[in-house]
Batch of 2 targets.
Target 1
Amino acid sequence: MKQSLTLIPTLREIPADAEVRSHQLLLKAGFIRQNASGIYSFLPLGKRVLQKVESIVREEMDGADAVELLMPALQQAELWQESGRWYSYGPELMRLRDRNDREFALGATHEEVITSLVRDEVKSYKKLPLTLYQIQTKFRDEKRPRFGLLRGREFVMKDAYSFHSSQESLDEVYNKLFVAYSNVFSRCGLNFRAVIADSGAMGGKDTHEFMVLSDVGEDTIAYSDSSNFAANIEMAPVVMDYTRKDVPLYELEKVKTENQKTIEDVASFLNVTPEDCIKTLLFKVDEQYVAVLVRGDHEVNDIKLKNLLEASNVELAGAEETKEVLSCPVGSLGPIGVKEVQIVADRAVKSVVNGVCGANEEHFHFINVNADRDFEVNQYADLRFIKEGDPSPDGQGTIVFAKGIEVGHVFKLGTRYSEAMNASYLDENGKSQPMIMGCYGIGVSRTLAAVAEQFNDENGLVSPANIAPYQLHLIAINMKDEMQSSLANELYKELGQNRFEVLFDDRQERPGVKFADSDLIGLPIRITVGKKATEGIVEVKIRNTGEMVEVHKDELLETVTEMLKNL
Ligand code: ATP
Ligand code: MG
């Protein structure tokens, strides 16, 4: 493609509203433009990268025996009402009405549409397993669209759904797609980890997220420093062995702690450590209130709480609510004497000996508090967030944290949708059974941004060869120079005939502008035609390493073929 004929509107300044590197560079290099908050146009270069990522996804999905189809983005409300998600999905689902006042949603995901389709078309166990996928634009009215393509309101997703007559069959396909996903992200050049995840609002269990390691990631990954264990921090189990110190138990005592607000304040005022304190928090769990206890140096993990109580919604109660339910200000909460609500506690609480807790009375705390003696706990469980330095749950090494961008997600859904929507098949005995399902997503446009986040330098993008918009950037320093222009045109033709993807900067621009744009766009190899055109010599430079060689035009094909092989 001749650069004079395409649209690559590069920018020299960093756009003011772009906070992260990938967003800044995709705008600066002219890959994307924002239309409205979280809504983007893919300009020619961005569109080419998107297509390359899509091709890799297609190859790997097809290789795993998944079959492509395309479903509508416009989905009738009735389907979402059947699954129950019309009410539970919340404001993220974009809703609209047609001219006859019928309600619709813009597809945020396609479990409902695919389940209704397969319900109508597949009746027998003989047609199972079946895995279908599509690559399509999704719509989610995100609360905080940000970081460019990383969290958009309109974005490209690959979503796949599998249907089975047995759990073993689901396990098999899940494992196959797990491998396919690993291949996709490896081929995009990404440094990623597959981590154990929470199934969230999707229902079902046994899920993994594919996380690209990056400081701008919104998720925290807890991983072992010496094994393969990696989990979303939401899900990482704590396997500490808490033993209670064998010391005499002292008598419970109420003490004045005027104006000591935080755990740290109270601990230092009473000359103890946060580990000696018991923190009490009131949560609203669906329609009930529950008091949750953790040790002073720990934080409540609301996902673990939600899973433990099999709830669909868990929220920290506000100050007003707390006052109403327990007649006490938030800062003074404690478990002693609480009868109004159920008490659940993290396992570490049991090990606190002669500890400190709030007295349910402003400016007062109890000291010498011992669980089970001074208050009763309805249930002990693993309820806290794992911390760096904790032992890894697989028994090997200790936990460290990293930030990750979720680019893919695989779930075992089970029968959540097939039961709600009546998708069943006849088994070998002619008996009707609900289909067992899996679902699998890749954020295609988010992957593109994740690559930009991981591959750049101070001058611009450094595109991995597999998904660069073009492989070669051919530049003629001075197009007005007859020799240069004719050699560049000759090479452009020859490289094209040999199936290289070439972007040819044939513009009448100053060399400085051409080189700066070229660095910004970051194609893997740059071929510069300059003064030595008279001798038939050009300069070949690798964007990633900066390595540069001069070659004669007759050796160019061989040189770039070799270089691309090694990139
Ligand atoms: P997140 O936790 O980031 O909101 P999610 O759990 O809502 O993601 P899924 O419903 O599993 O995401 O969607 C499948 C994939 O689609 C995700 O793994 C992610 O890569 C991508 N994705 C989700 N939301 C967005 C978005 N707003 N913009 C771009 N990609 C997205
Ligand atoms: Mg989301």
Note: The longest helix spans residues 167-187.
Target 2
Amino acid sequence: MTLSAQPGKGVIGVAEAMAAATAEIDAVLQTLLPEPSGPERRLAEAMRYAVLAPGKRFRPVLALSTAELFSVPRRAALRVAVAVEFAHTYSLVHDDLPCMDDDDMRRGQPSLHKQYDEATAVLAGDALLPLAFEVMAHPETHADAEVRLELVRALAEAAGPRGMVGGQMIDLVVEHKPADIGTITRMQQLKTGALISFACEAGAVLGKAPASARQALKAYARDLGLAFQIVDDLLDVEGTEAATGKKVGKDATLGKATFVALLGPERARTQATMLADQAVAHLDAFGERGAFLRRLARFVVQRSH
Ligand code: GRG
């Protein structure tokens, strides 16, 4: 069943729809991850350990939901959804390394370098990103090579120096230093927003949607990504390890520049709610078809993990 056709309204309906989509996504993740075999089997085992851990699958759900707007065949949408999750998981694995944020727990289990070792975690992350490109470049993702090329180009931009890696660099540079709202916003837009933006645009690319629709989804993603990150920061202050699956209170310890550190929890939550409202407003052109994406934006602000 498609996400938009899932019964139930409000946040509970979104959680149910996400759980149903997660089952579909995880089945494709299983098939597109390498099977452990040969002398390099440890690499495949480590990749599977990180990817198949219980993540929220938020970015794949975005890719599936935006693809539904343009009636993209499910098989194609799922391949791109899975590619986004590979790229996302790579960033988590590398972010947890001792040379980055040095996190011992991720997705409710020891982080990859703790379960295996640092070299294996570096290699597993290194292997997941090109696997994302391999999946998207395959003709099964789309018959039109130009569509595949655009997917590859857009993910490269989202993951590279003008995307996640650039954002991570700002994150490291401003640690333990005062940062203004402009710097924090830019850092979060690159670190978190760029991949969320790719996930939203991917549906439009697959569906060869008009530029106006792609622009609307980009604008939705920009506000949604910031709201998502603010809530992530709030959960680090107000959440629990049991709910989030990772250590909490780390941002303050590491001297991270966050919206919560700058604005305080109350104003940060107000800001997240305002951003979710703004995100919803960008979906007007999609009418009823945008209903699930609207509910997803509200869900992002109310989530507890
Ligand atoms: C390339 C090393 C490197 C880093 C890029 C994305 C990123 C920068 C680092 C990942 C760590 C991090 C906390 C990023 C902020 C974005 C974010 C909120 C990630 C967690 O995403 P969720 O909550 O995680 O969707 P799950 O586990 O549910 O998939």
Note: The mean pLDDT is 94.
